[in-house]
Amino acid sequence: GEDVEQSLFLSVREGDSSVINCTYTDSSSTYLYWYKQEPGAGLQLLTYIFSNMDMKQDQRLTVLLNKKDKHLSLRIADTQTGDSAIYFCAVTRGDNDMRFGAGTRLTVKP
Amino acid sequence: DTGVSQNPRHKITKRGQNVTFRCDPISEHNRLYWYRQTLGQGPEFLTYFQNEAQLEKSRLLSDRFSAERPKGSFSTLEIQRTEQGDSAMYLCASARGDRNEQFFGPGTRLTVL
Questions:
Q1: Of B50, B58, B104, the CB nearest to A42
Q2: What is the pLDDT of residues A68-77, one digit of tens each?
Q3: Quick one: pLDDT at residue A95?
Q4: CB pair distance less than 8 Å for A97 and B41
Q5: Given its phi and psi angles, is residue A83 left (phi above 0), alpha (psi -120 to 50 degrees) or beta?
Q6: d(CA B104, CA B102)
Q7: Residue A42 and residue B43: Cβ atoms within 8 Å?
Q8: CB pair distance less than 8 Å for B56 and A103
Q9: For residue range A13-54, what is the model confidence (pLDDT) as tens digits?
Q10: B90-103: average pLDDT
Q11: Neighboring chain B residues of A99 at a CB cutoff of 8 Å
Q12: How far apart are CA A25 and CA A27, in angstroms?
């Protein structure tokens, strides 16, 4: 099975909250990331969390980590049309390779 | 802008030709990574350098692929005898020695005809 799984699509209305979910299999993952990719662009690091944390908040972004269930989520408050993009969950054990999910395409409707 | 840069941004080549891509990492970053991303997928790890040493290579990196980072600064990724299945976006990322965040370049999109 895949190392990192995400649902492929999410559609929300402007102003609502978006919650993007991710599950992973490697329990030794120590760093967990969320990246944003807009069409034709590279990946933009949004936020990350260490495995010894269960929550991190950064302005409109809230990351929740349930280490027992190996579940990571990204909540975007007051979602805007500019938030429409593909969001990737990624995990790593340190310096080595990062494992990505297939990405969740977020569509924000006005 | 002092982010990660990659050249060329686009490359179209015929099957069987060799191609080379370049990545210039953020200047103080000693770790450099190459990834490949195909349509509808997340990036897949190819290889990783710490300074000039290539420390890890994925099984995806066949013997037609070679990467170098001769002076521990920029890196090149060469694909020999390209195949249509090599068509993808090739992404480079760099990271500082004491931090784990990887910062990505805009990628090189390769199309093999």
A1: B104
A2: 999 999 999 9
A3: 61
A4: no
A5: alpha
A6: 6
A7: no
A8: no
A9: 999 999 999 999 988 888 899 999 998 788 999 999 998 999
A10: 88
A11: 45
A12: 6
